[in-house]
Design a protein that fits this description.
Elements (H helix, E strand, L loop, with lengths): L3 E4 L10 E6 L8 H10 L1 H8 L9 E5 L7 E6 L10 H18 L4 E4 L11 H18 L5 E5 L3 H11 L1
Parallel strand pairs: 1-6, 2-4, 2-5, 5-6
Antiparallel strand pairs: 3-4
Helix pairs in contact: 3-4, 4-5
The structure holds ligand AR6.
């Protein structure tokens, strides 16, 4: 079985060791998948996030999962799309890679990613998927853990793009 799996579902329902949040630098919640994660996890998550004092773009920080089925939430900050000449691809790659490093340090066998930066942050979906898949493939080639990576595509356009790129 491939170590990369495509899923069309709500990320907050994933029974994995870690889910990744598409957060912002404040790490204090927001809309989109971030809002959904905070609603499903309950107030304990926000409380822990306050103690982290934010996160820079292209990086990530880990918390507990609280009322989520996932044990951990890894809060990643993807770049806002500003046309592509401001290092967006490197920053997006770095966000995915940092999540995988953190997951590996915490012995997470399974991790589920949303399509970071492709909602409010406006990153073109196909280009974002190419960066995400290359970051994950490179990491998996060099590391045994995580064993399994899920891409959870909520919107049909992202799902179709990943389906194409994964076949
Ligand atoms: N499960 C899986 N994917 C989802 C869900 C869900 N429940 N809800 C939305 N998506 P976005 P960004 C998808 O906007 O672009 C927040 O306000 C959605 O279809 O959540 O990185 C943060 O606080 C899209 O493909 O994240 C930041 O301020 C993907 O998640 C900002 O938005 C990402 O869309 C981050 O923007």
């Amino acid at each position: 079985m491939s170590r990369i799996q495509l899923v069309k579902d709500d990320l907050t329902r994933m029974k994995v060791d870690a889910i990744v949040n598409a957060a912002n630098q404040s790490l204090l919640g927001g809309g989109g998948v971030d809002g959904a994660i905070h609603r499903a996890a309950g107030p304990g998550l926000l409380e822990e996030c306050r103690s982290l004092h934010g996160c820079s773009t292209g990086s990530a920080k880990i918390t507990g999962g609280y009322q989520l089925p996932a044990r951990y939430v890894i809060h990643a900050v993807g770049p806002v799309w500003r046309g592509g000449d401001l290092g967006e691809a490197e920053l997006l790659n770095s966000a995915y890679e940092t999540c995988l490093q953190i997951a590996s340090q915490h012995e997470c066998k399974t991790i589920a990613f949303p399509n970071i930066s492709t909602g409010v942050y406006g990153y073109p979906k196909r280009a974002a998927a190419q960066v995400a898949l290359s970051a994950v493939n490179n990491f998996l080639e060099a590391n045994k853990v995580p064993e399994l990576v899920y891409f959870v595509c909520f919107d049909p356009e992202n799902y179709q793009i990943y389906q194409e790129l994964l076949t």
